[in-house]
Design goal:
350 residues; Jelly Rolls; 2 domains; 8-stranded antiparallel beta sheet; binds fe (ii) ion
Length: 350
Amino acid sequence: MLRHDSPSPDTTGRRAVSVDRESPVMNAEIRDYSEAGARRHGLAGNGTLLNLDRAEFEANFNRNFFEVQHQLADHPLFQIPRLLELADEMTKKWPKDIYFDAGVDDIGQRWSGAPADITVEDLMRRIETSKAWIDFKSAERSKEYGKVLNTIICDILKISGRQLEKNMRRKQMAIFVTSPNRISTYHIDSEVNFLLQIRGEKEISLFDRKDREVLPEVEIERSWTVDVNAAVYKPHLQDRATVFKLRPGNGVHIPVNSPHWVKNGNNISVSAAILYHSWDSAYYNLYSTNYYLRRMGLNPTPPFQSKLLDALKQPVGAAIQAYRTARFGNLRNIGPNADGIHDRTPDDAF
Ligand SMILES: [Fe+2]
């Protein structure tokens, strides 16, 4: 769920999303991540947009969260008037790729539907007072934003090595516009994410994904199988969070499954999540198998502790996921039936 700085409602599935494939821009322009390739695809002029420390990246990428720096703070595409144009474009072309709500104050609140009687343009114009959270999911569908995503993916691959690109099932850029003091509720995500702060300041509380008091095994199993909102905020464990102060020019890398929530400062905030969904289906298959083993009264061994058990569970989990996708639609927005995303999939029907 990418709720980051929001939920990535995309993954959280608050509203149905239509995107399952990479955008035409991505398909057309990402071919070669070398400097020469960037020039050929018209990206070289953008320069580096995401600054990564090689040693930090190699030590912690998709294992622990860490701070990053970027060059988007003064970028014209992320100014409010330009984002209003993007809202207009996306409303006309890809209305399911905009999520918005207003008036959420509770950290533990589940995602709910968008207000029916207001448009995203109205919310944007009243962003100062509407307690709104607006998520331009898949902003890269708009070509100029797609170039920004391409450039940042290039920046990542320059550090990681190009082999990482083979693991990227779908690359995405979500842009979040939030009202002063607005909260983005507690959740975990299934995507690898770089959350970049562009305008305003906010605090993100990030928890160790290996802490089983913060994130019990059963919550992870439910999250990957039946309920993208399964992670439950525990106020008495808030002091275990690492709190990053996000400000224009910095950001944070958020690994898969790392619990987090966000509190906006007394300012309008604009941030962007650069993320990718992985081809690796181990999380889905192993956690969904364990979900059903637990429902049978067993206490299954967590994933990644026994290669033998994982090997036995993989095909079982794949069958479970195939069945559930066929019957209920995709839990997250990465499969062929994205319009079938449910706010909460029935967990008593299998
Ligand atoms: Fe998130």
